[in-house]
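Support request, please re-run this one:
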Amino acid sequence: MIIYAICLVVGLLFTLISAVAGHFFGGHDGGDVGTGGHAEAGFDHSGMPGISFFSPMVLASFVAAFGGFGIIFSGIKATENVWISAPLSILGALCFAFIVLWLFNAVFTRSQSSSESKVASLVGQSASLISPITENGVGEIAYVQGSTRYTAPARSEGGVVIPAGRTVKITRIVGTQFYVEPSQ
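Re-run finished. Output below.
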């Protein structure tokens, strides 16, 4: 029963400390694990919003639930034997952890929105040249999409010079590089 109590306390303390530390100190320097550098997202390499089962928060939920279920099951006469209470506690903790995982992913997926434009839809759109494009050089354009103004590096098609202030048309996008030509 002491193991169950320790698991419950450790899981709850980890969750509490993570919430407080994350609120006051950020927590955005977790290194790149395929989740945009957010360690709280776990080791999910999909790059999609959400968390994996190996997220510290889900694992802490599992540990706390194991302790909680263990205390409950060891207090019931029919399941007080450790050979019965431990497997039931593991099963209950797994169910609880999967519910937590599902809830977090549901919240992250539904609340995920971005102010970033959909780059593929920009081809053919007009933009303003903020800084000139030198011969075979790079300049900077500004364009508006979804009522938001964005800037991006740009090269001219054919490597020709285009002075600043000109209106250009986006012809293609390669990576983060926009290719433009002067508008007629």
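The chain has two domains: 2-111, 119-182. The CA atoms of residues 93 and 135 lie 64 Å apart.
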